[in-house]
Amino acid sequence: MSAPGDPQGTSTRPYLLRALHDWCTDNGFTPYIAVHVDSGVQVPQEYVKNGEIVLNIGFEATSGLQLGNEFIEFKARFGGLAREIVVPVDHVVAIYARENGQGMAFPMPSGPAAVPEGAGGPRALRLASSEPAGEPGAAPSGAAGDAGERDDGGPDPDPAAPGGGRPALKRVK
Questions:
Q1: What gap in Å lies between CA 10 and CA 63, rounded to an integer?
Q2: Quick one: CA dihedral 120, 123, 126, 128, positive or negative?
Q3: Per-residue pLDDT tens over the stretch 122-143
Q4: CA 101 to chain CA mean position, Å
């Protein structure tokens, strides 16, 4: 981040993430984030695929959600187990509404640990799956319980979602 008074200013990413989270919430949509995972990200590793995880950051799926300037922090249930999630804001590569795919993609984090060996990197602009990173249930269900999960542990598909609940991130110009 830049120092106060720096002509560059601070990063716009945390402000845009909060704005799009508010927009999703105000419109009754479910906000999802795609996160580039490396050693600086605290998420359940069993749900990470190709160096990426997709997380539901809606209020009904999280507990204690904090969308800070440096980190996104919350508690969520994965497979019935409560987990602490800590995501550096610069590791969020997209935020979008599950129901219609509208949102915004961001550049990959830079640095030597940005892309783990063997990982192809995130699918930032082809987020076509409502199931995170190929694993059912990786998007957290309600943090206060497992309401909203199917018997197999995955989230219930949204009947209102176009295309059978498989939104795609769209570029809005």
A1: 27
A2: positive
A3: 333 333 333 333 333 344 333 3
A4: 13
